[in-house]
Specification:
It contains 14 helices and 8 strands. By secondary structure, the protein is an alpha+beta fold. The chain has 2 domains: 203 residues, no CATH class; 115 residues, no CATH class. The chain starts with 6 loop residues before the first strand and ends with a strand. One of its GO terms (molecular function) is endonuclease activity.
Amino acid sequence: MSHKLKEGKLRNAYLTDEEIWRIFSSFLSSKSVKSSTYKYVLMKSMIENLYEVNENLELSYDQLAYTFAKVYWNMVVVHGIEKHNPGSRNAAAATWVVIEERETYSIPNDYSFDKIASSVQLRMIKKIKQAMKVNVFGALFGDTRGSFYEFSHRTEYFRFDPNVYSFMLNYQLLLTQLTNFHMAKKIEELNGRSVDHVIMKVEDITKRGNLKPFERVLLHYFEQRCFYCEKDLSRGKRQIHVDHFVPWSFVQSDQIWNLVLACSKCNTSKRDKLANGLFLDKIKERNDELITLKEADITPLLESYQEEKIQKMYVYSQKNGYDQLWAP
């Protein structure tokens, strides 16, 4: 059975967009055995980490397990959706991991994943990574006919097929929406809740609840000015906002190199729009400054950053429909 595979190699066959859509549609259809929400969450983890790959289009198991842990914690603990598999305890390992960690450390139910102590997060990620090795990587590999990615439990790496990677960038928003919808349907089937009730929670489970750590870093190393209109944020009672330069609704993840300080007026006005191209050059310059600082609290946040990544995010967000450019 494919879910028991410890290693999977790509087929090395060129796939057209039409063929990739066919495989993706088959994965979402009833032809694919999806007794749990695992495969959907792995697909969400792949999408969230599209801009975290290295030059070989590889992700580490830890990167994927972080998103996996975050999604299950926010679903199970924060939103109270505990049933993710109709079968045995072992088959629902990710759910049990977060429940046990919550009980062990008496963590309040309203604590989103980012509020948990980093030591507890790391424990959870390690346990969930083991569950993914048993139940997840091989299963989706089989459902995508060994053509979307390859993986190895020994080296703990995951590598995208280049054509599939380009396809996912081009259709990122649509793939996210399709995955969220079908995941909500699976949750409805397992928990008896309506799709309309669940889908808003599914769309929200990867969102960071607290951007304050990033705000503190940016305030410490840069002038307290709005990135967009350059108003002084230190005077009076002006509220400081942390804005996703390329909108969160597209990126679905938080990287300091895509975050800027903004005044309330600019943040409210910009919302889900893409900033004018002049600001793209500005954020590249800002990120160059971050890199040259080489400070202990910044360097780990920039490990995967390359200038081409913010450029790529900007371009592909436009291809995905974020074509209404904004300026203050």
